[in-house]
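Example record for the data management plan.
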Amino acid sequence: MAYHIALDVTTRKNIYPGLFIALEGIDGSGKTTQIEPIKKYFEDQGRHVIVTRSPRKNEGVLATLNQDILQGNLSIPKPAFQYLFTADYIIQTEEIIIPALKRGDVVITDRFHCWSSLAYGIWDSSEQYDISIAWSFLISQGLFSPGYKLIVPDITYFFDVSVRTALKRIAQKNEVAEVYDKKETLEKITKGYQWLLKEFPEQFVVIDAQRSLDEVRKSLAEKLQKL
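Corresponding structural encoding:
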């Protein structure tokens, strides 16, 4: 039995006085390293800054579960990954992000769930990376969901880096490897991000993350001044 479903939905914008910023990119892109300079930039202006991440691995009721999955210590069906992360981000949105934005704070998130859920989630959905399911993924993961829509960041900085450079940086980090940190996986996840940049160009500011940390930091400072 075939069923036809048509939906007209919009994104949920930030209507609060605070500023919502997301940093995106594949593992090893260097985005996490730049959070502290961005935080300091706004604190120097007298703003209160909240820093969070998606998915959360060190706080929240699902933190331990998220970390075990990402590190490969817990095996669950791959399509379930992103639904679990969606649940965590909805909790985070209601308990942390919205209250902070209402206060007028600056919220910086290391990854915005919906962007990441598409890039990484398509990899989890099947053995082949099928970008044709991208729109349905954005609906199911909360960007266009008629049930609960996540707030879209005011601006998202995308750290553009080659897979080769990313893997080199990952190898240099003194951290436990995660299930996505493989060449073939990151190459396909990059295709997901490329699709997002094409379909949502107004949402992203692209940062050339191939450069040194200092060069990236200076570029970010210039772009922040234009906000």
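Summary line stored alongside the record: The chain has one domain: 27-225.
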